[in-house]
């Protein structure tokens, strides 16, 4: 059984039990309404999603492209863009110029 803090949203039951796995993620079944699915915590899912959005913003992808790629609403992308400053990749330091010796003619 899962800890009692995890509940299923639709029926409100905390009676969840393990029911196999799908792509290396555990599946759970609600014993009250017999619904089964892969339950993931929203915090972990949102953290991964915000990291992906940050990378796309740094790559200067358009907001419309980000919406199509991730499925996140545009206002959410705008809020995240305002929160995190976009720092471009640092330019490589120029190498020291080679010294040329010229002979007098």
TrEMBL record:
Residues 83-105 are annotated as: Disordered. It comes from the Bacteria. This is Uncharacterized protein. It comes from Hymenobacter lutimineralis.
